[in-house]
Amino acid sequence: MPEAMVATRQSKAGGTPQQVDVAVVGAGFAGLYLLHRLRKAGLSAVALEEAGDVGGTWYWNRYPGARCDIQTIDYSYTFDPELENAWTWSEKYATQPEILRYLGFVADRYDLRRDIRFRTKVTEARWDEAAERWQLTTDNGAPVSCRHYIMATGCLSAPKPPEIDGVNDFRGKVYFTGRWPHDGVDLAGKRVAVIGTGSSAIQSIPLIAEQASHLTVFQRTPNFALPAHNGPAPDDRMSLLRADRDAYRQQARQSMAGVPYPQQTVVSWQLSDAERRERFERAWAAGDLVHILSQLWADQAVDVDGNKIVQDLIREKIRAAVKDPETAAALTPDDHPFGAKRPCLETNYYATYNRPNVTLVNLRQEPIKAITADGITTSKRSVDVDVIVFATGFDAMTGAIRAVHPITGRGGKSLTDVWAQGPQSYLGLTVEGFPNFFMITGPGSPSVLSNMAVSIEQHVDWVVDRLAALRDAGFTTIEPTTTAQAGWTRHMADCAMLTLHRLANTWYTGANVPGKVQGLMPYTGGVGPYRSICDEVISRGMLGFRLTGPNVATQCNDGEVVRLQPDVRLVLNLLASLNLPPIESMGAIGARAFVGEFNKSRPAGRPIGEIVDGRLPGADGPLPYRVYKPATPGPHPVVVYFHGGGWVLGDEQSDEPFCRDMVRRTGMMFVSVGYRHAPEHRFPAAAEDGYAATRWISEHAAELGGLPGPVLVAGWSAGGNIAAVTCQLARDRGGPQIAGQLLVCPVTDCSFERPSYNDNATGYFLTRSLMYWFWDLYCSPDDRSDPRVSPLRGKVDRLPPAFVVTCEFDPLRDEGIAYAEAMAAAGVPVEQLKAHGHFHSSFTMVDVVITGVQGRVQMAQALRRFAGLPPEVRSGDETGHRHASPGHEIAAAAS
After folding, report:
1. Range 396-405 average pLDDT
2. pLDDT number for residue 511
3. Cα separations (Å) of 77 from 9, 58, 253, 559, 576?
């Protein structure tokens, strides 16, 4: 639309507030869809847009080479099939002009401009508690009074100002990629400097180099860039879309990144070098950012070693593309995991540095001292330039929200003050203390870690549907509770521990803005899981929100929507979706077969030094065992391990992933014992086998390859019960000597009356009824007070030092805590790990519950302390504890 026509849409100055149900700030992807949905819902609305037309970030970012980095068949509205049929993208990755034309096409198709006030900036927003309305002041035209206030300002729309002395002294031209002149810039024959090598620089540098007489690029931190291989939309993706458009779009909505790719399940260490390279080369040739971020192997985003493989392969590509080794080295990232910063798509970027008119200045070796009248001075040189282009990025996520105006909520609270220590929100949508205030793709939502088009539609639909429902029910205000917001903050932190994002200084964390409090701002739990959480809030009666209205009773269903660890939640949801019959309904033989088949589908675990099988004399016949040895030279301290399974299920191999993991973390040898099972062998068979096995292993430690002397014992669930009982029997029967005990979610008592048995009776895989079944098969009621099955009822003094692990969502939680407290009261050195958000199987599900890593690290450190060793495995280890920073220590533990 011509600028003159746009201008006619602007409001003239006036003092009478414009009265609407909803005011929207922004007219980009989010603002346009909001206007469309609000109108359909019968809510009056106005959008306030600082720019001269629609487009949002695509209105401002007109620098050479500007493109999206999500394929445009995915980076599109999906709410109207007729709209999809009416528009055809010309390229796989559309340019900024085409995207801007698309948004203008949408605005015209749905007649949205009539509800937009262009060239209008909100200068103040204040919540009027008496009127229960937001009062907005603007710099152009009438103020606005609205019931609901929605920020659709975008995540990357507040350019970061330059931080270099002397910018005002420069006599040449200065441009910002985020505010590029609309009539373009002629750089022909000019000496040009580009400062920054983020996405906008990587896209623009090749085109600037073609025009400039000389281009000097000033780089502080290199980023990973992948070839876009732009062209027509890929046939395979287009075929999927055309074959079943609804299924294609629905898969995107339920995916992790908002693009219809399945969740990868193969982990890096299961593949050979040749297989990994083949997968990588195929992804490299495809030119698809989401594909290479998510489809190589399942552990690339969560595991240091799995990620390093990708890093090294990309570094090979950079060295091959850039002829000068010194320049190639400067362009090669070495300070962050791949994907922890937003990788870029490039077209001829690396090849551009082979041009004779392009120079790279490595600011890590020669930082900029000042900008002068004629150019840029570093610690080593002065560069004369005619033009400086700042490609220094944005104050992401929060900058656009806080920069638009002061926002004052309930009780005079300023959003800037409330967010002084970092943004706090509920679902990334709302903020406590700011009624009727919403953010589209705000901090705390998937936003920039997703396909924004999918996330925008989900947010807009959720908000507008809620506003219509509130109106229909008579409610006039909605505001999150303190409890809900604090719970979401904790869930955000739990999710962040799953990924490697925390290991990079990036705009995701605010590290690019001086003085900004750092913290991972986007939600890392995935688009599909986030959508299900938002739906759950609704299904649970607007959980975490307080709703009020003049003629209805206040509704406040307070609480936290997610209390489980994010990966635990996914596991439990998956198990629930399978609709499996209760294990106790299968009978002992059927249950063993089921567990055996389940274990076959799981990766056994990372390679270790050696695995040896054998048999040892038990209390009443031979028992199988499996020895797991470290890769380092022995002999090693010996840990006798007892598997879980309610004394009914499992064997010496069933906890293999856990045993391998602990061997790698401890540098110690684990001997997993297969004891006799009920109902064929009832109490005290398992207990007596455990003790007999421990005594024999202690006596034959050297023959097994271990260190002679005291052993350690460990066990999970019923195995934790056997380990605890073994320590008591060893004390009472004169040995063997045990240096320490690791009890993971142990059975310690026969009582079912503790709160955890009621709180966690169902829904967390190990149920109250399953424990009834285990007990009934193993031990008669008359025998259950025997300390050999209920060690809490025995003497707990003079026992080896203990590390006791309990999980929040486990029926056995309280008896594990009670046993730890009883030992401590009796003078036994005891440490406890009370695992927040975890369930009974968390720590043994090594392959899928990533958030169990920290707990297993603590377990390993405890075992090493018990054995008289330093807490961490040293040189030659496989756990990767080689980094200086705490963040890298945590991430290395995930390897």
Report:
1. 70
2. 67
3. 25, 15, 12, 34, 32
Contact, 361 vs 216, CB < 8 A? Answer: yes
Hey, what amino acid is at 17? P
d(CA 295, CA 262): 8
Percentages of the chain per state (helix, strand, coil), in multiples of 5: 40, 20, 45
Handedness of CA 834, 840, 844, 847 (dihedral sign): negative
* DSSP secondary structure letter of residue 263: P
480 close to 431: Cβ distance less than 8 angstroms: yes
**Residue 891 scores a pLDDT above 80:** no
Residues 412-432 have a mean pLDDT of 94
- For the chain, the maximum distance between any two Cα atoms, rounded to a whole number of angstroms, is 96
Contact (CB, 8 A) for 88 and 59: no
Distances in Å between the alpha carbon of 79 and those of 34, 76, 84, 232?
12, 9, 9, 24
What is the rounded CA–CA span in Å between residue 9 and residue 52? 10
For residue 237, what are its two tokens? 């993706």
| Parallel, antiparallel or unpaired: strands 477-480 and 545-549 | antiparallel
> Which are the contacts of 779, defined by CB distance < 8 A and separation ≥ 6?
647, 678, 682, 683, 750, 789
Indicate the length of the chain as a whole number. Answer: 895
Backbone angles phi, psi at 384, to 5 degrees: -80, 130
What is the rounded distance in angstroms from the CA atom of residue 815 to the CA atom of residue 757? Answer: 9
Tokens of 78: 């999906």
Separation CA 642–CA 349 (nearest Å):
56
d(CA 33, CA 36): 5
CB atoms within 10 A of CB 418: 16
H-helix segments, 646-716: 656-666, 685-699, 701-704
List, in sequence order, every residue forming a beta bridge with 465; answer none if it has no partner.
none
Buried b or exposed e, range 821-854, using 16+ CB within 10 angstroms: ebbbeeebebbbbebebbbbbbbbbbbbbbbbbe
- Exposed / middle / buried, residue 367 (Cβ in 10 Å: 0-12, 13-18, 19+): middle
Q: What is the arithmetic mean of pLDDT over 5-28? A: 73
Measured at the CA of 891, the angle between CA 886 and CA 892, to 5 degrees, comes to: 95
Long-range (24+ apart) CB contacts under 8 A made by 167-171 are 167/371, 169/371, 169/372, 169/373, 170/371, 170/372, 170/373, 170/374, 170/375, 170/388, 171/373, 171/374
Cα-based distances in Å from 74 to 285, 453, 532: 19, 8, 21
Per-residue confidence band for 877, with pLDDT thresholds at 50, 70 and 90: very low
Q: How far is the C-alpha of 177 from the C-alpha of 203, rounded, in Å?
A: 10
Q: Which token pair is 167?
A: 């910018």
State how far the Cα of 894 lies from the Cα of 124, in Å rounded to an integer.
Answer: 47
How far apart are the C-alpha atoms of 812 and 755, rounded to whole Å?
Answer: 10
Cα–Cα distance for residue pair 280/308, rounded to 1 Å: 13
User: Average pLDDT in the 373-379 region?
Assistant: 95
Structure tokens at 247: 């299924």
Q: How many CA atoms lie within 13 A of 392 on its CB side?
A: 21
pLDDT bracket for residue 215 (50, 70, 90): very high
Q: Are 286 and 278 in contact (CB under 8 A)?
A: no
Give the pairing of strands 621-629 and 669-673: antiparallel
What one-character DSSP code corresponds to residue 173? E
Helix axes 685-699, 718-732, angle to 10 degrees: 60
Whole-angstrom CA distances from 156 to 58, 508, 875 are: 10, 11, 44
pTM exceeds 0.70, yes or no: yes
Q: In this structure, is the dihedral angle defined by the CA atoms of residues 816, 821, 827 and 831, taken in order, positive or negative?
A: positive
Report the chain's mean pLDDT, rounded to a whole number. Answer: 92
The answer to whether residues 793 and 787 touch, using CB atoms and an 8 Å cutoff, is yes
